[in-house]
Every structure is written in structure tokens, then in C-alpha cells.
Amino acid sequence: MVTMTWPAPGARPVGELLREWRERRRISQLDLAIRADVSARHLSFVETGRSRPTPAMILRLTEQLEVPLRERNSLLLAGGYAPAYPEHGLDEPELRSIRAALRQVLAGHEPYPAVLVDRWWELLDGNAGLDVLAGGCAAWLLEPPVNVLRLALHPDGMAPRIGNLAEWRGHLLTQLQHRAQALGDHRLHDLRDELLGYPGGMAAVTSPAGVVLPLRYRRDGQELSLFSISAVVGTATDVTVAELAIEAFYPADAATAAALREPVRSR
């Protein structure tokens, strides 16, 4: 049984929104029709509002367009249907086991820094290794909600201790721009505009000396060299879980590894 609802007053038609997502992905109407196994004529009718898509059709098209779960729910609402994907808080019972597993991952990564963030790069959790990067940052930047990109690039945050700030800014701002464009998220666009106003320059890495761009971070008179790996929950069917990512930092050289392990050995 299909649950019907009413789109919000003034909401844009679902067909218009689907066309916008198709154009954002730079996929032709014919290519999307082939991928979704529908006729190009029917897809044209859906996009122009001449045909009302079923919830199954909306989900089929959004899957082919790799639309995030949050926006799939919004498209269903625009079509007059109930959301298909739940959204629970991390502290709710439904996500208790997920939160416990993610905390195990964070703790298991120590003594190296690792954080759990949402789609807007807001800090949800972190391990003890985070103190290596957050030490010396202004207290107000560490008050929830903490945005890790703001923490990294603000002149009262990590920025003064980043040895390759222009390159690291370029790396982070490029990531942010790509996500903002891919999601059409105004909140991410606003964050990028804010971060662009911080000092530090921006340089692209066209011919790096190594295989990855390291974060060169000065701490206690020593320069640490770190690279990061991002991991997501690949089988998420909950909006909150689908938007989680663990950003884990690893030593890029033996000296950094030894420096980060030293506090553990000395305790």
C-alpha cells in the first residue's frame, strides 16, 4: 500500500527536481532511461510533469542518479509520497550497535588521530589521538558543534601550525566544492564561502613529490607528516548512517609514527 502525503506549499515539482539531479550528474535523458529500464518518452513526461511518477519510479531513478538518501526522501515528499528511509539520531536505540562499532574503530586507531563526521564535516566523535591536532586551538572552535574544516583552516585553529597550509587548504576546499556541487547543498556552499575568507592562500598540487599529499603539522617543535583515509558505511539504509564518515590519519613516515607512539610507551 502506497502512503500518500501532500507536498509542502510552494514545493518544486518532483519532475523538475529529478531533471535537476540528472543534469547535475551530466547524464542525458536517454542514458538515464536506459539505465533505469524505462522509456525515454515516459522519463520526458515525468520530468515535464505530464506524468506523475510512482514511488517505485522515483526510487529507481534516484538510485541510478546516486542521489543521497536524504534527498531521495525529499523527492518522494515532492511527489506526494511518504519518505522511504528512516533517520535516527546516533543516540537512539536503533543506532546503538552502529555507534558502538564506530567507537571501536576510533579507539582501535589510537594513538593516531581519527574523527567521526557527518555530511557537513561536523564532529560527532573522536579518539584520544585527536588531541595531537586540536591542542593549541582556540576553545571556542572546540565548542559543539565543531566543524572540522573550520577547525583546520581558521587562523585560531590548526592553520598556524600547518606547514603546507596553502596546499592543504586547496585540498580541503576542493573536496568541499565537489561535495557541495554533487549534493546541491546550500549549507556546504555557505561553509565554503566562509572558509575561502580565511587567510593562508590556496595552491593546487600538480606534481607531488610523494604518492599522497601529507598534512605537515608542527607540534612541540617537531613536524609531523600525516595522510588521511576516509571510510563510510557501505550498506547504510538510514539517512544518518549513510552520511557518516570516519576520517583516519596515518603517519606518512617513520619519524611521525615514532612520535605519535611515544606518549603511549611513556605512560
Summarize the structure.
With 267 residues, this protein is α+β, with helices and mostly antiparallel strands. It has helices at residues 14-24, 29-36, 40-48, 55-64, 69-78, 96-108, 131-134, 148-153, 165-183, 186-196, 239-242, 254-266; strands spanning 114-117, 123-126, 215-219, 222-231, 245-251.
Structure description:
The chain has 267 residues and is of the alpha+beta class. The protein has helices spanning 14-24, 29-36, 40-48, 55-64, 69-78, 96-108, 131-134, 148-153, 165-183, 186-196, 239-242, 254-266; strands at 114-117, 123-126, 215-219, 222-231, 245-251. It has a 5-stranded antiparallel β-sheet with strand order 2-1-5-4-3. Helix 1 (14-24) crosses helix 3 (40-48) and helix 9 packs antiparallel against helix 10 (186-196). It starts with 13 loop residues before the first helix and ends with a helix. The model has no long low-confidence stretch (mean pLDDT 92).
Approximately how much helix is present in the residues?
A: 40-55%
**How many runs of DSSP E, i.e. beta strands?**
5
Tell me about the largest β-sheet: 5 strands, antiparallel
Strand fraction: 5-15%
Strand order of the largest sheet: 2-1-5-4-3
Sketch the topology as an H/E string, one letter per element.
HHHHHHEEHHHHEEHEH
Low-confidence stretches: none
Structural class: alpha+beta
Shape: elongated
Radius of gyration: 22 Å
- Give the overall average pLDDT: 92
Put simply, the count of helices is: 12
Cα distance spanning the termini: 61 Å
